[in-house]
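re: the backbone from monday

yeah here it is again, tokenized this time
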């Protein structure tokens, strides 16, 4: 029998050992001869697969919970931002209304106090120590201030959403 084994090249033994190591199979010598012990490894592989599926299900559930929490935070942040933008719009409208009223009051006061010519109404009052804006310049400035505040609020909203996402993923 050993003479038969001597006829097989050594590289065949090495290849057989490598194949068995890669497949986690073992030879078993019993009264029926030489057999592979595979069943034990099939059970272990099935248990490993089941544990991996369980871990995947847990990770998926955790990811869904995190996602739901993030969505809730983002919705809250968006609602706060929308409320602030609505307040800014009301403030802008109030400023525009006050500008209109002030411009109307100035024109009315000038027209009643002096000559009724258009040039006299458009002139700035003599001796005034504060600058006066024309109506359209005041509206433009109010619009730009509103736009700047709106952009600032949107940037703050983005930053809060980023921080909430970063905290949730820690």
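seq for it, each position gets an aa:
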């Amino acid at each position: 029998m050993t003479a038969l084994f001597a006829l097989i090249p050594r590289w065949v033994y090495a290849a057989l050992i490598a194949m068995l190591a890669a497949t986690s199979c073992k030879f078993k010598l019993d009264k029926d001869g030489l057999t592979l012990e595979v069943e034990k490894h099939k059970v272990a592989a099935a248990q490993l697969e089941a544990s991996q599926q369980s871990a995947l299900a847990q990770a998926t559930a955790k990811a869904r919970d995190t996602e739901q929490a993030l969505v809730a935070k983002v919705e809250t942040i968006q609602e706060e931002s929308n409320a602030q933008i609505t307040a800014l719009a009301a403030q802008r409208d109030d400023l525009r209304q006050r500008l209109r009223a002030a411009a109307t009051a100035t024109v009315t006061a000038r027209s009643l106090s002096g000559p009724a010519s258009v040039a006299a109404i458009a002139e700035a009052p003599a001796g005034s120590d504060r600058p006066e804006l024309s109506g359209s310049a005041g509206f433009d400035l109010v619009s730009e201030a509103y736009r700047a505040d709106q952009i600032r609020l949107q940037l703050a909203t983005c930053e809060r959403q980023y921080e909430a996402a970063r905290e949730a993923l820690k």
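Confidence is low (pLDDT under 50) at residues 116-122. The two ends are 65 Å apart (CA to CA).
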